[in-house]
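Expect chain and fold; see below:
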Amino acid sequence: MKGPQFTVEFPMPDGRRLRNRSDGLVSVLPVVQFDADGLTTTHNADFLDDPAFQKAYQAGVNTGHRIMDPAKLHIEWRVYVCCWAATHAAHLPGDFVECGVSTGIVSRAVVDYVDFNSLDKVFYLFDTYEGIPESQMSETERPLALSKNERHYFDCLSLVEQTFSAYPGVQPIKGVVPESLESVDIARVAYLHIDMNIAAPEIAAVSHFWDRMVTGGVIVFDDYASLAHTSQKIALDALAAKFGARILSMPTGQGLLLKF
C-alpha cells in the first residue's frame, strides 16, 4: 500500500527552486521571469529591464484609468507586444489606428516607445470615450460588458486629449464604430490595435480597414485569446478565414495578424 504522495521545494541562492518528490524524483525549477496577467513563464523577459520600455509603459499605465492601482496592473507583456508591432509598423507606409482606447494605456505607451513625433504619420484613436455601447452587445456579452462599463469606463475624452497634447499627430475621434470610421479618410494603415471588448464593432473595424492595411501591416487584437471573450475569437476567426488569413493566438491573451 502506497503512502501519501508529497512534494517539497527549497529555494536556491540563485532564485531557482529544488523540488523533491516523495517518489525520489529530484528536479531544479528555473526562475520565473514573468507571472501576471494570465501569463507565467520562465523564458527570457529582458524587455522588462529596458529603460525605454519602462518609460513608455509607465506613461501608459498612468493615464488616469480606473482599472486598478497602476502599480498593481502588470500588463507589461501585453503592452510590449503592441510596442513591438508599432516598431515594425513605423518602417512601413501608412498611419496608426486604435479602436478601443479608453484613457489610452496602450496608445500612450506606443507613441512614447516609437518616438511618434519623429514619424510622418497620424495616429487615429477611435472610441466612444464613455464605455461599450449597449446596443452592440450580444446577450452573451452583455453581463461582462455592462460590468466593465460600471467598473472601468467613464467620460474620458478631455483626459485623453490632455494625455496626447504633446503629440500633434495623434487624433482622438469620439463616436461609435463603425459609423465613426467614416468620419475620417484614412488611405493606408500600418498598425491597427483592436480592443472594443465585444464582437460586433471589432468585426466592423477589421472589415473596414482590411483593404487599407499595407503589405506587412500588423493587427493586434487585445481580447482575442481571453476565455472571457470567446465570442470575439469565434467571430474574428471566421472573418480572417474569409480573407484567407489566420490569427496567431498569443499566451498574453492577444491575437496577432499580419497583412500579406
Residues 221 and 255 are 5 Å apart (CA to CA).
